[in-house]
Structure formats: C-alpha cells, structure tokens
Design brief:
By secondary structure, this protein is of the alpha/beta class. The chain folds into two domains: about 160 residues, Spore Coat Polysaccharide Biosynthesis Protein SpsA, Chain A, CATH 3.90.550.10; about 80 residues, no CATH class. Helices cover about 40% and strands about 20% of the residues.
Amino acid sequence: MNKLTAIIPTFNEESNIEAVISSVSFADEIIIVDSFSTDNTLTIAEKYNVKIIQRNYKNSASQKNWAIPQATHNWILIVDADERISEKLKNEIIETLKKTKKNCGFWIRRENHFMGKKIKFSGWQNDKVFRLFTKNHRYETKSAHAEIITNKNNKTLKNKLTHYTFKSYHHYKNKINQYAIWQAQDLIKTKNNINIFHFYIKPVFRFLKHYIFMLGFLDGKAGLKLSFLQAYGVYLRYKKLQELLQKK
C-alpha cells in the first residue's frame, strides 16, 4: 500500500486534538502543524506518536503549502482539527491507496454539523474538499477559500468526512469576520470600485440563495442563522474592502 502522511493544522484546539489524532491513527505518519497554540493543544498531542512543527499563521493555504513538503510519504491527507475520519471513510482511504499507483488526488464530501445540529441543506448539501492527494500538489496562493490546484479528472470518495463546524452563532460570526478580512485582501488586487450593489443587493441575494433556493428553511433555526451569516459575510467582505481602498 502507498504510505500516507496525515497533516493536521492547529491553533488552540485542545478540545479537538485528541479526537482528530485518533481518527487518523491509521496513517503512517501524523504531522501537527501548529500556529503557536497558547492552550494545552501541544501538551495533549505530545502523548501520541506525532511529529509537531510550528510556524506563524498567515493563512490556511500558506500554512498547508509549507507543511506538505515536510511529509515523509508521497500521499497526503489533510484533516482540520474539527473534522473526523469515520471508520467507513478510513477503510475506503486504505483500499484506495492499495489500488492507486499514479500521482493524483481525491475529493471527499463533508457531513457538516452547526451548533450541534446536522445540516442537510442550506448550501452545504454538496460540500466537498480536496484532501487526499499526492505530495506534488499545492494550494492556490489565496488568503481565503483556497483549493488545491488540480485537474478536473479527480474522483470523489463515497464516504463522508464529518465536520463539527462552528459550535455557536458567535463562533461562526467571529470566523466570518476573519474570512472577510482575507477575502478583502484578495479582492483589492482586482477590484477598485464598490457601490450599493455590493453592500445591499449581493447580501440579500446571498440570503435568499441559501435560505430559499438551497432549502435552508428545511434546517430550521440553524438554517435561518446560517443563511443570515452567509449574507452578513458578503456585506462584511465589501466593508473590509472599502476600508482597504480608503487606506490605499
């Protein structure tokens, strides 16, 4: 079988680190790429057979691109601290690595949980991430929502990655604020003008898209909150961009 390195990016993940390490324990090597956690993340991680490397955090893509070349093995599995590899997905990954001989990669669908509730709709029903791939792959040089640069011929695994995303409304809101900053930093490279369309029409459309067209209303209160936060995120992105343009 092709040998596998699992990479787990962390910052203050003491509540997640033990469970995520356990879920990737089938990997031949586990690397914790830590952004200088100030809680007990590393104290807990050191109990296990893992390699710990540290680097100041710039953005997700930069951190992962720095960690990938440090893997011992040719196959890489990226798992965030709030994600878990199920037994079925583990077995599928093992079987996939037995059969695959070429340099390539695989998409993995995600089962998302928000505020303790499994989200079936709200735009998350088709969520998938490119997380199992050979060492020659790299992420885009983007501050937010960067994906692996790859071709369109990669397959998708059948079993899902469990994602215990944001624990509360305020947790998600704080995260959206950070993403808005990163997205504004990406946008300022190409966009020099914003107007009422960006501040009002786009956020309203984003809410309707997630709540109505992507059936967020079927997720109850969680779907309503998610749809509002998606719309708020669009507004905030352009608010941060406006601030950057004013400084510029």
